[in-house]
Every structure is written in C-alpha cells, then in structure tokens.
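REQUEST FORM: STRUCTURE PREDICTION
Request ID: SP-0412
Submitted by: Lab K.M.
Chain count: 1
Length (residues): 344
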Amino acid sequence: MTKKLKVLSLFSGCGGLDLGFENAGYEVVAAIDNWQDALNTLQSNFPKTKVLNIDLGELQKHQFDEFKHGIDVVIGGPPCQGFSISGKRDVDDPRNKLYTGFLEVVKHVNPKAFVMENVPNLVSMGQGAILKRILSDFEKQGYSLEYKILTASDFGVPQNRKRVFIVGIKNKNFKFPLAKFTTERRLTCLDAIGDLPEGDLADGSEYKLKHKTEYQELMRFGSEGIFNHQITKHDTKTVETISLVPDGGNYKSLPEDLQMTRRVNIAWTRYSSKKPSLTIDTGHRHHFHYKYNRVPTVRESARLQSFPDNFIFLGSKTSQYKQVGNAVPPLLAQVVAEQLKQYL
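STATUS: Completed
RESULT:
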C-alpha cells in the first residue's frame, strides 16, 4: 500500500479543507482552531484526527514540536476579516498579520508543501502589498509559490464562491488545475438540493424522495438519513415579502415601498434553480430558497458547499450556519489536493 501523505490543518474550522484532503487520499494527522463549536463538529466527523484548541495568534512553537518530523503538507485558511471587502481594507489592519501564525508553524514544521486559502480580495488588498508580503515571507523559507483565484462552480460545486489559493512547494513549480465545468454544465441549486423537503425534519429522518441527479446521489452516499434540516420560521410579513420574489429574483422584483426594507444590496435575493448559488454566508438571512419562502436550512447550505449528508454539524443552529459559511467547499479542496499530490 502507498503510504498516505500526512497533513497538519490550521485554522481548520469545521473541516472543509480537511475533508477535501482526506477524500483525495491524504491523512489529516491533526487539526487546530480556537473555536470549540467548530472543533466539536470536526472531531465528530474525523474521529482519528488529533483535534487541538490553540490560538494561533498567541503561538508557542513548542506546541508543534511533535509535528516537526513527518508532516508533508500544512493547510489552512487564516482569519480573513482584515482582507475582506466586507470589512475595513486597511493595509495595517492587525488582522492581516494573523497569517503569521500559519507562517511560523510552516517554518517550525518544515513541510514539503503548504496550501493557504483566503478571500479573493487578498490579491488586490493594499494594491497588492499584503499578497507581496505573504509571498516574500514564504519564499524566504525555500518555497516556490503560485496563487490563483478559483471559482467553486468551475470544479463541480453548485456555488459561485471565489477564493484565492496560495500553494507553496519545495523546489517545484505548482500548476493549478483547469476548470472542469463550463457555464452550461455548472451544477445548479436544483441539482444540489431539489430532493430535500420544504418542512422540518428530525435528525436522522429517512429520504422521502429519490435522488434526481448524480450530485444528489454523491451527497447521499454513506449517509444514514438527513440531519441539520430544521427550517427557520419567519414572521408573516417576511414570508409575504419573500413570496413576491420570483425564482432567481431580488429586491428589484418587490414593490417600491418594500425594496428598501433591508438596506443591503443582496437583500431579498432568491437563489436561482437554474444556476449555482451565490456565496453561502454565515447566516445573515438575506438569501432565500429558490422555491420555498424561507432561508435554506443548514443541510441545504451544506449541500451547496459540497459537504456530504453524512457530515453532521454540531452546536446551535446559529453556530452551524456559521460553520458551514466559513468553510472551504470540500470538493474544491479535493481538486487542489489531488493536483498537489502529483508534485509530492
């Protein structure tokens, strides 16, 4: 048997990157974060992985001594609020330096390669100053670096989520995989969640409908039922407003007196049944099911992120939404992991 490449996961969240690498044939030896809710979910879904609650912003290198030999790849998505267009775009924002926790672990552990994921705005932030600083720091550690903004729907995820990936390998030049899905072939919301019901389900409920697409069949594989499918009950006024928005529509479909009831440009947006979803957020409740007059459930959001149905989220519903929204789509992570494997 071929020995599995060993992975150390940082800023792991609930384990989207981890699941992608595991599915590509790697072994995630340990996963580290300082959000206990996400770690509880990760440990439940990765029982063989060592899960540690460590604040990488207060890094103590001795905590990583046990990983100094034998780790092939370090992966992670450092907190990115400082980089995000939804927050301040200040080059000197201290949150932009949180990646240094990732950098220090890479320096200490010295893997053959690393994969770092972040919001696409990182590329242009500070006219490229932040990215340039990051690339320079890793080059000094002997890594050849490539970065690229990838769109999840290009690689079989039913979501138009964009993320930048930075890949560093010792003495080898990485090439990113090419898109597999053209606009005409991209998976849609209907492809992804059309088999899930409108109403509440108790955890472990049987599937009432047969799967209708290969993607639904893939998501169901190995699952013993439907979990995390508890609906959000909106007030009457909200339901009435949602009902006025057609499949794929938004606030512009509403009467003028209702258009400004939520003062954000993504408000009252229905997903399109004929397209991939918009980027799954952490539960802001501005995006609605393409057919039902409610926000997607945690399970529907997880499907759109490409988490399989046997990946069960723990914690409060609010926490579950946040875990799903913060994650890297596992199928996108798997594509990057499989490509990296060719170089290792």
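NOTES: The mean pLDDT is 91.
Reviewed by: T.R.
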